[in-house]
């Protein structure tokens, strides 16, 4: 078997150009041959038997490699990313500062409608103005917040 290693390496190089794959293929062939030495028939060619093992090993590994996508499960770049909590904290502070920069009547409308979740009618009653005015204030406040936060 040891005398056949150079011939096995040469045959493996024809199947795969990667030196590590060639080494792995020859090693796997030797392991399989040693594990199944009892199946070798005296009087037949050991070289042919070993080449058959090598070819079958290559075909098995090649078939598996075609079906597998290497590295997708282990690759960190393929995982969905989650923003760091620090970014959310910074964005919350930015929003709070932008909210404080709004005129009082815009800030009150945003607070009642968007933050407290009340209806436009309830906000209009609380502020003592028409519903259309509340809608206008909320719309202008949203536009001003969007321009400040972008």
Describe this structure in words.
With 150 residues, the protein is mainly α. It is 71% helix and 0% strand. It contains 7 helices and no strands.
- Structural class given helices, strands, pairing? mainly alpha
Largest sheet: none
Mean pLDDT: 87
Low-confidence sequence ranges: none
Q: How far is it from the N-terminal to the C-terminal residue, by CA? A: 72 Å
Rounded to the nearest angstrom, the radius of gyration is 36 Å
Backbone shape:
rod-shaped
Percent helix among the residues? over 70%
Count of extended strands? 0
Order of helices and strands: HHHHHHH
Number of helices: 7
Strand content: under 5%
Defining traits:
71% helix, 7 helices, 0% strand
SSE arrangement:
Layout (H helix, E strand, L loop, with lengths): L4 H11 L3 H17 L10 H22 L17 H17 L2 H12 L4 H8 L3 H19 L1
Helix pairs in contact: 1-2, 1-3, 2-3, 4-7, 5-6, 5-7, 6-7
Brief synopsis:
The chain is mainly alpha-helical and 150 residues long.
């Amino acid at each position: 078997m040891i005398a056949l290693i150079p011939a096995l390496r040469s045959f493996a190089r024809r199947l795969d150009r990667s030196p590590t794959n060639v080494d792995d293929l020859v090693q796997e062939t030797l392991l399989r041959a040693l594990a199944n030495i009892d199946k070798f028939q005296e009087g037949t060619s050991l070289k042919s038997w070993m080449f058959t093992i090598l070819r079958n090993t290559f075909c098995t590994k090649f078939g598996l490699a075609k079906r597998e996508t290497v590295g997708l499960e282990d690759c960190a770049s393929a995982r969905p990313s989650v923003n760091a909590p620090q970014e959310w904290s910074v964005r919350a502070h930015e929003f709070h500062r932008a909210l404080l920069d709004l005129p009082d009547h815009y800030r009150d409308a945003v607070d009642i409608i968007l933050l407290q979740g009340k209806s436009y009618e309830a906000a209009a009653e609380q502020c003592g103005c028409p519903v259309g005015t509340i809608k206008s204030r909320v719309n202008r406040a949203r536009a001003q917040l969007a321009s400040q936060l972008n």
